[in-house]
Amino acid sequence: PQHVVLYPLVAKSLRNIAAGKDPLEGQRHCCSVAQLHHHYSLGYPDLDELQKNPQPLIFDMEVLKVEAPGSYQQDPWAMTDEEKLQAVPLIHKEGNELYRQGKVQEAAAKYYDAIACLKNLQMKEQPGSPDWIELDQKITPLLLNYCQCKLQSEEYYEVLDHCSSILNKYEDNVKAYFKRGKAHAAVWNVAEAQADFAKVLALDPSLRPVVSKELRSLEARLREKDAEDKIRFKGIFSQ
């Protein structure tokens, strides 16, 4: 019995996962024994009974799937440094395919995993060293892809943060200026958006049609906002 006394808490977490909930839902940040005393009920009568009266358990395991060697993709934390380097191009490719399929959130998760692999390796290098720079140059396109996903998910402030981080190191990155400009425009940072788009044109004049389209869209939104504000303020002052 002493070996299964904590099983009810584990079982509750597994049931939460199966239901799509946070596995730690309702738990406090304390040791497992304190958790037992804190929880008068786990929300499941059978687990409550087992918690009160611990007893030996027998588990029946069912094999759902057998995967061929090498077909299972490890989580980044479980990989060796060499495995991380080898995995990044594959994860990048998977992210691109998901993005083409319109699965933006799933693609962002893939790009995030690839970035995590490279960041982990980069932490072991001296900042500014050739190896550190080489890894950083691999991170940058992945981070820009991640930002594109975040733009489509309307998570604009995350885009502003990441693109600014890139531009602090690489002042001539056109894609970072363009994505940051779109994010600034979305959150009504008009002057900042115009400055970023101007920088895009200075670095790559061939993008003028694309930039002009973004500026026209921003101007149209501004006119619409002005009209809405006039109606709103007119209603306030006429009361």
From TrEMBL:
UniProt xrefs under SUPFAM superfamilies: TPR-like
Keywords attached to this entry: Cytoplasm, Phosphoprotein, Repeat, TPR repeat
Domain AIP/AIPL N-terminal FKBP-type PPIase: 1-63
Signal peptide: none
Gene Ontology MF terms: peptidyl-prolyl cis-trans isomerase activity
Domain of life of the native organism: Eukaryota
Pfam family, one: PPIase_AIP
Repeat positions for TPR: 174-207
InterPro entries named in the record: AIP/AIPL1/TTC9 (IPR039663), PPIase_AIP (IPR056277), PPIase_dom_sf (IPR046357), TPR-like_helical_dom_sf (IPR011990), TPR_rpt (IPR019734)
Protein name, UniProt field: AH receptor-interacting protein
Source organism (scientific name): Smutsornis africanus
Organism ancestry: Eukaryota, Metazoa, Chordata, Craniata, Vertebrata
